[in-house]
Amino acid sequence: MLTPLDEIICGDCKDVLEKFPDDCIDLIVTSPPYADSRKKTYGGIHPDDYVKWFLPRTEQFLRVLKPTGTFILNIKEKVVDGERHTYVIELIMEMRRQGWLWTEEFCWHKKNCYPGKWPNRFRDAWERCIQFNKQKKFNMNQEAVMVPMGNWAKTRLKRLSETDKRRDESKVESGFGKNVSNWLGRDKVYPTNVLHMATECNNRNHSATFPEDLPRWFIKLFTKPGDVVLDPFIGSGTTAVAAMNLNRHYVGIDVLEEYCELARSATQAMPQRKLPI
Amino acid sequence: MLTPLDEIICGDCKDVLEKFPDDCIDLIVTSPPYADSRKKTYGGIHPDDYVKWFLPRTEQFLRVLKPTGTFILNIKEKVVDGERHTYVIELIMEMRRQGWLWTEEFCWHKKNCYPGKWPNRFRDAWERCIQFNKQKKFNMNQEAVMVPMGNWAKTRLKRLSETDKRRDESKVESGFGKNVSNWLGRDKVYPTNVLHMATECNNRNHSATFPEDLPRWFIKLFTKPGDVVLDPFIGSGTTAVAAMNLNRHYVGIDVLEEYCELARSATQAMPQRKLPI
DNA sequence: GTTCCGCATGAATCGATAG
DNA sequence: ACTATCGATTCATGCGGAA
């Protein structure tokens, strides 16, 4: 079977991917249903069963990913009985046994985290974006995510509005859009492994969207135009839209037909490809 | 033996703590020698041996810590052979078997991280501050680390200078100092589990100092004046100085006499206790 | 066209209450 | 006793409407 490109496929990603050929995906970036979350829609996997549930799927991810490809897993451990549960770190250990390399762990600082107050902890304002690879040599285009933040840029930024300044603090290109070309040839710096992005809290159709900037950043970093991006838990379609906007092919999978429809609408509602990338 | 207070003791913390009574420490906060780092000074423990080396020491930490106390471990996994090494997550698993509760993991965002460029990764701008406890109920004074950042403050901040605004962004009390009292009674918010603090790059006598703000923040959060703070890897004495400034007792331990001397000088050079806390 | 203000909205967590 | 459900808590963000 050939790889179906630019499609949203309904089904369990384990079953769907079994029909895919080996080494056909350049980047997998996904935010799976967290343990015990989204119960009403996804059924909810108990934290204690999460690793066992996930491993057969990462096995398929490993097979379909190209040797030079990357797998970015956005995840966070829940608090269970007053403690951080260990399913995420156990998953890392088990995936290494499966053959994955644990290359890096990015920290996504969620500037607008969920509110609340408890006697024994503060609000959780960060999630892991764990980078796995098949080999030590993988594709990476660092220049694609460089940030205009030299002295010249800094001076100019002082004249921007408060809102724009806030966006600039994210240091991740978001908020600059078309103007980014103005910064070419100026002082630009490489980002770090800490990403500052706010969640999108205005999406009423899907309870757990990550911001488009997140997959967008990793797509620019780990793929080039024409490459294939897979999100095995596509949800509302954020990853597919991000890939589309960057002239990459996408493959989206979700077990719920409802979300597949949502993702299809999102990709088809795209007004145009916003160039330049 | 009674607990020796406000002293820097030379020796391996395992041996030194064996002579301490049970349940005598309110907070342990430390940044141990990282695996295979600081070879010249600490001898360097190979990453593969790190957990085995560390566990007998955490066993003593567990014994001397009060039931309501907290252990904050500032650590980060090294890159070994292109991969993040697993000694930190293995350590968490093993310490849980030892009886520790893995309550939380704070993210310390190092705003001025170490420079450098590599083909396959970005600069590492965050470290883990892992919180362990003996029981679910522990002492925590959240009000002590509240931050002036409500709507009212936000509006007002627009009129402050650029420099002040930058300091404000740190959200961790650093940079506000005396002015912070002006904000009392106004909108203050609780912080999150992401700490934004710059590293101190001016200490050339010790190879791995963390900024005083880091132990200071945790000391304010998990102890009250008169409590006892232990740093079993005291290094240049940052934790002892922070405890002293906050009117807490300290116990510092280091295997190297050279660092003990350095720490003693640091505590004795204290000009005065900077009140208010 | 700007800027400003008010408002709804969250991958949360704890503790109490109910079965 | 042990599990399931529910209310209270809390704040950065982006939207729409207003000045």
Describe this structure in words.
The structure is a homodimer of 277-residue chains. The first copy, chain A, has 277 residues and is an alpha/beta fold. Chain A folds into 2 domains: 7-146 and 191-268, Rossmann fold, CATH 3.40.50.150; 153-189, no CATH class. In chain A, 30% of the residues lie in helices and 21% in strands. The first copy, chain A, has 9 helices and 10 strands. Chain A has helices at 13-18, 39-42, 50-64, 87-98, 151-157, 162-169, 213-222, 238-245, 257-268, and strands at 7-10, 25-30, 65-75, 79-80, 83-84, 101-110, 126-133, 194-197, 228-231, 249-254. In chain A, the strands form 2 sheets. Chain A has an 8-stranded mixed beta sheet with strand order 1-10-9-2-3-7-6-8. A two-stranded antiparallel ribbon of chain A has the order 4-5. In chain A, strand 4 (79-80) and strand 5 form a beta hairpin. In chain A, helix 3 (50-64) runs parallel beside helix 4 and helix 7 (213-222) packs across helix 8 (238-245). The longest helix of chain A has 15 residues, at 50-64. Chain A is globular. Residues 150-185 and 272-277 of chain A have low confidence and may be disordered. Chain A binds chain B through residues 81-84, 86, 89-90, 92-93, 96, 101-105, 107, 109, 113, 117, 119-126, 136-138, 140, 142, 158, 162, 169, 190-194, and chain B through 81-84, 86, 89-90, 92-93, 96, 101-105, 107, 109, 113, 117, 119-126, 136-138, 140, 142, 158, 162, 169, 190-194. Chain A binds a DNA duplex (19 and 19 nucleotides) through loops.
